[in-house]
Amino acid sequence: MSDNQATLTADGQTVDMPVRSGTIGPDVVDIRKLYAQTGLFTYDPGFTSTASCDSAITYIDGDEGVLLHRGYPIGQLAEQSSFMEVCYLLLNGELPSAAELTKFSTTISRHTMVHEQLSSFFSGFRRDAHPMAIMCGVVGALSAFYHDSTDIADAEQRRISAHRLIAKMPTIAAMAFKYSVGQPFVYPRNDLSYAGNFLRMTFGVPAEEYEVVPAVEKAMDRIFILHADHEQNASTSTVRLAGSSGANPFACVAAGIACLWGPAHVGANEAALNMLKEIGTPDKIPEYIARAKDKNDPFRLMGFGHRVYKNYDPRATVMQKTVREVFDALNVNDPLFETALELEHIALNDPYFVDKKLFPNVDFYSGIILSAIGFPTTMFTVLFALARTVGWVAQWNEMISDPGQKIGRPRQLYTGPAERDYIPVSNR
Ligand code: ACO
After folding, report:
1. What is the mean pLDDT of the segment spanning 294-307?
2. 362-406 pLDDT, tens per residue?
3. Residues 246 and 405 sit within 8 Å (Cβ to Cβ)
4. Between the CA of residue 321 and those of 132, 325, 337, what are the distances in Å?
5. What is the pLDDT of residue 89?
6. Cα 348 to averaged position of ligand 1 atoms, centre (Å)
7. What is the pLDDT of residue 3?
């Protein structure tokens, strides 16, 4: 590889391919002409060495444990900013002025109600339906209600649909929860903050006024910030791929929600808490560590390891601190937190986890906080989807705005039968 090009020699042919540099991070070899020039494809299942797009939104250095949104470190945003401000930053590229932030927050709060007819969708689901199943269906159905913002070629319609998705997601998430517990839906209140409104819609009842606990509201807002975007992860790539065909943003975000649900992705926060409950007390930890290391046992430490972070996930650091704040505010002390801390300590000193660079990820502590706030485990992934919606729509909008955008269409290494003649069933 030279300064600005890489050379590939295969089958006696030599091709030069441009090497492109971003602002920071690894350079990329631009292989777009490789097939035309050589007849070869590249092979990279799981995209471990493949950059799928240009993006100016989020940067991760997995080796150093760095996460930047539009250049700002996640730790600074989590400590000093607000979710509304981070949404504005992700969507627009710069931090808002005070006036811009007020205008943006007001716009979002004015879009929080859903079409009244959407409420009847919920009664079509079983009461015991997983709220993520409900989210996939109801968010996808939004495209049937908001036709006036589905022309993706119109930047203004894209902006409106982005605002609608960010604004309505807490309402839909709270409705999914209310439906599962048999309580009436609570309408949004626009004088509350984004997080405060969500907490009230989730835990409030019409029979009495709900008081938002400021420390919990702050923790909720911070959890939303920590989950707002994460570069080209599986669900974001799903949203981009779905959107590359020109599908509307509501349908694309529903596709993202479906992907997010998997236990290797965000379903891990639910799995991590279930694992901690199963472990129970610190004395059982060695048994589970041994299982995680056993190649013949499919068990993995949930909330540990990450495709990109080969260091402590910077979001897990903030999350761990937030556990204590929520416990203090609610005067609770879940012994599972001690189990989690001890598990982390033991794992981080075990050569298996050290050598494989397996550290706690964002999901390791989030379940403990969400559980203390009162969310059932089935809602954990829903909260992640709620917060990630801004990342999905920012990435989707970036893709659609790119004049060079093409439909996503990977190729394959075919391993099936070569061409053969059909045999009539009577001769088989
Ligand atoms: N416990 C035990 N061993 C693990 C774990 C774990 N949690 N994670 C990875 N390993 C081991 C694998 O067995 C493998 O070992 P080997 O090289 O001897 O075969 C090695 O570490 C590499 O693991 P891969 O699965 O190849 O790594 P990959 O980058 O594909 O996977 C993933 C990343 C899916 C997150 C994985 O670490 C995992 O399954 N973790 C548990 C689930 C989890 O917490 N997911 C949340 C991710 S964060 C998010 O989505 C927000």
Report:
1. 93
2. 889 998 999 999 999 889 999 999 999 999 999 999 999 999 889
3. no
4. 28, 7, 11
5. 98
6. 15
7. 65
**Distance, CA of 77 to CA of 95 (rounded, Å):** 11
Q: Which of 404, 21, 413, 44 is nearest to 6 (CA)?
A: 21
Q: What letter represents residue 135's amino acid?
A: M
Distance 71 CA to ligand 1 centre (A): 28
Q: Judge if pTM exceeds 0.90.
A: yes
Cα–Cα distance, 386 to 223 (Å, whole number): 11
Structure tokens at 71: 């250049």
Whether residue 360 has its Cβ less than 6 Å from ligand 1 = no
Active site residue 147: no
Specify whether 402 is catalytic. Answer: no
* Alpha-carbon gap, residue 362 to 53, rounded angstroms: 25
Please write the tens of the pLDDT for every residue from 325-364.
Answer: 899 989 988 899 999 999 999 999 999 999 999 999 988 9
Pocket mutation for ligand 1, best pick of 266, 306, 354, 392 (most atoms within 8 Å of C-beta): 306
**17 neighbors 29 (Cβ within 8 angstroms):** yes
CB distance 292 to ligand 1 below 6 Å: yes
* Tokens describing residue 366: 């989030």
Distance 46 CA to ligand 1 centre (A): 13
Atom 23, ligand 1: residue with shortest CA distance: 305
Identify the helix (H) or strand (E) that includes residue 59.
strand 58-61
Q: Is the CB of 268 under 6 A from ligand 1?
A: yes
CA distance 53 to 35: 18
* Phi-psi domain of 13 (left: phi exceeds 0; alpha: psi -120 through 50; beta: other): beta
**Ligand 1 pocket test, candidate residues 237, 289, 358, most atoms within 8 A of CB:** 358
Nearest to 91 by CA among 422, 414, 409, 390: 390
Alpha carbon separation from 24 to 58, 60, 66, 357 (Å, rounded): 11, 10, 12, 23
pLDDT tens-digit series, residues 136-165: 999 999 999 998 888 999 999 999 999 999
Contact (Cβ atoms closer than 8 angstroms) between residue 89 and residue 72 = yes
